[in-house]
Each structure stands twice: as structure tokens, then as C-alpha cells.
Write a structure and sequence with these properties.
By secondary structure, this protein is mostly beta strands. It has one helix and 19 strands. It has one helix at about 40-45; strands spanning about 5-10, 15, 25, 35-40, 50, 55, 65, 70-75, 85-90, 95, 100, 105-110, 115, 120-135, 140, 150-155, 165-170, 175-180, 185-190. The strands form three sheets. Strands 2, 6, 8, 9, 11, 12, 14, 16, 17, 18 and 19 form an eleven-stranded parallel beta sheet that branches. The chain is globular, with a radius of gyration of 16 Å.
Length: about 200
């Protein structure tokens, strides 16, 4: 899609998804469209005004979702309520760049993995971040940076959280569940302490 005009949904949820579940989704600066890919740039997200949240992808999506460039929805925020959600069914969610929101933020895949690449991180200062990979794992990155910065963080996985590279966080409250196999390795750096 190419958004060229403002979308105002009031209190309604805005959902952006490809025509086919098999299509890949790219989000952030430089995200391009082609026959196999739905690209949603940071500038296009800036055209959406809502207090009801934004969902990108669907629980039936299989093509994978990647944050390919900076997506800053906190500076001059126009998405001011609800939840900013990135969804996949069997596809992975890969965070290759900074994703910043002024609202609660969810990354959810039913059987894929959530992967933080070297430059990838999610920030939702003062809000809740949910990482849900109920059939997969959540992987941190090797960079010396926080993967998640938020007030609260909830993580669900089945085959490990920070199993190969620890997940680095700056949160006040952390809840997590890893149900089947793999290790849990989380390093929290918030100076004020952690409630688990």
C-alpha cells in the first residue's frame, strides 16, 4: 500500500494487512512494497490518527514481519491509545531497527520466533510491552543495548527466552513464561529495581 492521505479513525482500531497471508510485511523507514511484500513506512504510520490502536498483520499471517527501519510513533504521536500490535501466525517477527511507541506495544506470533537483530529494539516508555511467541522463542541480540524499554514487560515462549543471547531489558515489572524447553536469560538494567 501507499498511504498518501491522513487516516483518522477516532476511537476505532486501524488494521493493516496484506491481501495474502503468505506475503511478507516490512515496517519502518525504507520499507518498500512489491508483489510479495507489504511495506509500511514510518511516514505512512504518521498519517494514521487514532486512540483505538493499530494492528499490522494477522494471526493467520505466514510470510513473516520485519521492522526494517526506524519506526518512531512516540515523537509527535498520532497513535495515542489502544495497542500497537505486530501479528503473525507461523511467521517470525524480526526487529532490525528501533520501534518506538507512545502506547502499549505487542509483538505476537503463534508458532514463529521473535528475534531482536543487532540494531533492533522496542521502546514504549511508561507503557506495557508484550512479547508472545507461544510456539517458539524470543531471542535477544549481541549488541550492548536494551532490547525492550518499558514500564511493564510480559513474555511468553515455549522454547526459550534469551536462550542463545540474553534478552536485555529496562523495565519495572517483568512477567514471563517459558513452557517447554530452552533457557531463560534476561538482564534487566533499570536502576530503580525490578518487580517480578
Amino acid at each position: 500500500i501507499i498511504l498518501v492521505a491522513a487516516i483518522g479513525s477516532g476511537t476505532g482500531l486501524v488494521t493493516l494487512r496484506p491481501a495474502s497471508d503468505a506475503q511478507a510485511i516490512r515496517v519502518g523507514a525504507g520499507a518498500g512494497d512489491n508483489a510479495a511484500t507489504l511495506g509500511i513506512t514510518d511516514a505512512e504510520l504518521d498519517l494514521i490518527t487514532t486512540t483505538g490502536g493499530v494492528t499490522i498483520g494477522a494471526g493467520t499471517s505466514t510470510g513473516g514481519l520485519t521492522v526494517v527501519g526506524v519506526a518512531d510513533q512516540a515523537t509527535g504521536a498520532t497513535i495515542t491509545g489502544g495497542t500497537f500490535a505486530l501479528l503473525q501466525g507461523t511467521g517470525n517477527i524480526i526487529v532490525n531497527a528501533a520501534l518506538t511507541n507512545a502506547v502499549n506495544t505487542t509483538l505476537q506470533t503463534a508458532s514463529g520466533n521473535i528475534i531482536f537483530a543487532l540494531a533492533g529494539n522496542v521502546t514504549a516508555t511508561g507503557n506495557m510491552v508484550t512479547l508472545s511467541a507461544v510456539g517458539g522463542n524470543v531471542q535477544g541480540n549481541a549488541a550492548n543495548q536494551n532490547d525492550v524499554t518499558a514500564q511493564n514487560l510480559d513474555i511468553t515462549a515455549s522454547t526459550g527466552i534469551g536462550n542463545n543471547v540474553e534478552l536485555e531489558t529496562a523495565v519495572s515489572t517483568l512477567t514471563f513464561s517459558n513452557t517447554t524447553s530452552g533457557n531463560v536469560a534476561i538482564c534487566n538494567t533499570l536502576i530503580s529495581g525490578l518487580t517480578a
